[in-house]
Amino acid sequence: MNAANDPETGATGKTQGGTAAREPSGWRWLPVTAAVIALDQLVKAWVVQHLTLHGTLRVLPVLELTLTYNRGAAFSFLAGASGWQKWLFAGLAVAVGVVILLWLRRLNGRRQRLLCLSLTLIMGGAIGNLIDRLRIGHVVDFILAHWHHVYFPWAFNVADSAITVGAALLVLDALLETRGPKKERL
User: What 3-state DSSP class applies to 65?
Assistant: First the structure.
């Protein structure tokens, strides 16, 4: 395989002026990350301004908004720790963001749309919660789902939702990749 058709670099066999034309990288999907961060921070600001701590606002028969703070990670993991977890989770979010940014750079933004979307959703959610941790020391959670009197045990937020949807799409992409036609291997 020559460099002009290398899937690792994103270059194609098409040439423009004697040089290989470059396919767009996954970075073209970064506006999704920016949109997740903006939506997450705007909704959190509204919730903090309009709800009292643990006060509820019924939105749907199965959904309430309730202001809570989470010093831990998903499902309040390590929420009761003495404060060191803030820096652990902040460092983890930065590491995840850097890895995803590098991964997106290597992806083809046109051909690998589902993978790019999943990664940008995950990165947007991680950065949205990172902003909370660094700015106010904890994550603002507010979405509380329930069915009649059976409540989901933890409140969550837009960033958590983006991470969850992104992870589900990442799994779907992996399943579609393994079930698709076998690629030619060297």
Answer: strand
